[in-house]
UniProtKB/TrEMBL annotation:
Protein name in UniProt: ABC transporter substrate-binding protein
Keywords annotated in UniProt: Signal
UniProt cross-references to PANTHER family, sorted A to Z: PERIPLASMIC BINDING COMPONENT OF ABC TRANSPORTER
Signal peptide: 1-24
Domain Solute-binding protein family: 82-498
Pfam families: SBP_bac_5
SUPFAM superfamilies in alphabetical order: Periplasmic binding protein-like II
Keyword Signal found: yes
Species the sequence originates in: Candidatus Avichristensenella intestinipullorum
Single Gene Ontology MF annotation: peptide transmembrane transporter activity
Length: 586
């Protein structure tokens, strides 16, 4: 039935979409070579990697800028390795806590301006600037390695208690920098620290030209004209909310590793439009959603792989209009009222229900390759959740906890609480979930808890929440941290009070103390101990319902026959390596 409906939709809108593509895509030059055609569901708000949490920036930066290190497929297509990009070779260990990174002398910006140690030092100093308070500062300060005094520097505000000279980032010579870490780390940890778009260099002349008088913000990267790249591709078109176009930079030092002559990245929020372009052969990849997965599940071009993402629901504990918003019992009531099996099966399609938060992929890059979920410790937490009900679902417990919350907060038998579920209106699966819960909550909670849906568009969930605590009670999210491939506990990093752009507003001292313990060198160097401490952390998380885990994401993806991938299977951190792919002769 779904296949017939989808086919009809494609046929009836084919002409419309053909016209749309002709209007929005830049004209292809004759003999332009190999063109890879992909999409983003939302555009980059800015190209300044220092001050935006939106993951869409990573695509533009990976192609059009250069990090110190890149992940690159191994020759057999079954793994990845770190290679130097701006860096000339891998980091060199001086002692347990000091590493030197040499910048390749041929590195330069797209306008030919040289890149050297001063470029990197300036870029990171601005990223960590305590007055600018950039949202992504922690990625260079405390990701897979922790740089001495970096967190203290950027978190100090105007106190001036930590000088830049105290930070473990130093220039050794014109083409060498040195970092000093809090803990002993290995070469892989150091490389992994410098792959995120926030750690890519910024072009000082434009960054400074865009700086306001108070030096609290810069307009760098708000347009193509005030941003500069240094990558294997050049950004030649940026029509906001429409399309980005990259053309190969033949002068890049790693140019031979990249095979597309041109990359077209359309911005396509709506799934139906993506399907239509895929069916017309105008996209080389497609990630189906719950409404389209059944159509393609048996398609030989379909591949699947597990994800670091556990889709969850953030809970606002500060809504002044919700009299029980600060109650932990209320949070527990919501946790036990979620039928995850229905949501995963019927509303998201072919995904896995989850009552726990640490993903199935966490720990896969550890020395033993034992994931936390497969370990004795991870399985024990799952068993605890199952003792409550299937993936934690238990309407009786939900009602008991709501009654407790009502009593704690002084509400009576006749009181009714309405919670606001805020969602991006283009997210069809979460919209369907909200509608499902809007029907279920009054039944489960016997009319004492109602759900209202509020939709928003054109902004991130983080930005919407910033409009006011009275605007939402529940909000879906899927934050992930790639460091958890190696260190499972780090998936909780974003929910600490110390993370400046934290998606939640509920913090537990015991949880933060346990996370700090996991961060110690004693725990990080002993994987068995790390599994044990991660178990305690996840138990504290569940006891307080920091937020509500709902679904373990499984990624399904279609690749066109004309696209030759550089890997044989999905590889954590690298993914499918599409940017290193090739276009088959047609």
């Amino acid at each position: 039935m779904k296949k017939r409906r989808l086919a009809a939709l494609v046929l009836t809108t084919l002409f419309l979409m053909t016209t749309l593509v002709a209007m929005t895509a830049p004209a292809a030059a004759e003999g332009e070579g190999k063109v890879y055609r992909t999409y983003l569901t939302a555009d980059c708000p800015i190209l300044n990697g220092h001050d935006s949490v939106e993951i869409s920036l990573q695509t533009t930066h990976n192609y059009c800028s250069s990090p110190l290190y890149r992940t690159y497929p191994t020759a057999d297509g079954k793994g990845f390795e770190y290679i130097g990009d701006l860096a000339d070779g891998l980091p060199v260990q001086i002692d347990d806590y000091n590493w030197q990174i040499k910048i390749r002398e041929e590195a330069c910006w797209h306008d030919g301006t040289p890149i050297n140690a001063d470029t990197i030092i300036y870029s990171w100093k601005m990223l960590l600037d305590p007055i600018m308070a950039n949202q992504m500062a922690d990625f260079v300060a405390n990701n897979s390695v922790t740089i001495v005094n970096a967190v203290e520097y950027y978190m100090q505000g105007t106190s001036n208690t930590v000088a830049w000279e105290d930070v473990g980032i130093k220039k050794v010579d014109d083409y060498t920098i040195q970092i000093t870490t809090v803990d002993a780390n290995n070469q892989v940890d150091v490389c992994a620290q410098f792959t995120d778009r926030s750690t890519f260099p910024v072009y000082e002349p434009y960054y400074e030209a865009g700086m306001n008088e108070e030096r609290t913000e810069t307009t760098y990267g708000t347009t193509m004209d005030n941003w500069m790249g240094c990558g294997p591709y050049k950004l030649v078109t940026w029509e906001y909310d429409n399309i980005q176009v990259y053309e190969k930079n033949p002068d890049h030092w790693l140019a031979d590793l990249f095979h597309y002559d041109r990359v077209e990245v359309r911005i396509i929020p709506e799934m139906n439009a993506r399907v239509e372009l895929w069916e017309q052969g105008l996209l080389d990849d497609l990630t189906p959603d719950s409404n389209t997965i059944e159509t393609y599940i048996d398609d030989p071009r379909m591949v699947s792989y597990p994800s670091l993402s556990v889709f969850h629901i953030d809970i606002n504990c500060k809504n002044p209009n919700n009299p029980i918003s600060g109650s932990v019992a209320y949070r527990k009531a919501l946790y036990h009222a979620i039928d995850r099996e229905v949501i995963a099966r019927d509303l998201f399609g072919y995904l896995k229900p989850s009552g726990v938060y640490v993903s199935e992929m966490a720990g896969i890059q550890s020395e033993s390759h034992l994931t936390y979920r497969e370990s004795e410790q991870g399985k024990a937490v799952e068993a605890m959740v199952e003792s409550w009900g299937p993936y934690g679902y238990n309407p009786d417990l939900a009602r008991d906890y709501l009654a407790q919350a009502f009593e704690e907060c002084g509400l009576g038998e006749d009181d009714v609480v309405t919670v606001i579920f805020a969602i991006d209106e283009s997210d069809t699966s979460w919209k369907a979930t909200a509608e499902y819960l809007m029907e279920q909550f009054p039944v489960i909670f016997e009319g004492k808890l109602q759900l209202e849906i509020v939709t928003y568009a054109g902004m991130s969930a983080t930005d919407f929440k910033a409009t006011g605590d009275d605007k939402w009670d529940l909000s879906p999210n899927d934050w992930t941290r790639t460091a958890s491939y190696t260190y499972p506990y780090t998936c909780f990093y974003y929910y600490l009070s110390t993370y400046g752009s934290h998606p939640n507003n509920f913090f537990v001292e015991e949880f933060e103390e346990q996370y700090a313990l996991c961060e110690t060198s004693e725990v990080r160097s002993d994987y068995t101990r790390m599994l044990e401490e991660t178990k305690k952390l996840e138990e504290i998380y569940l006891e307080n319902v920091i937020h509500i885990p709902v679904i373990q994401n499984v990624n399904y993806q279609l690749f066109s026959d004309r696209l030759d991938l550089a890997v044989e299977t999905y590889i954590p951190v690298l993914g499918w390596g599409t940017m290193y792919g090739d276009i088959a002769e047609e």
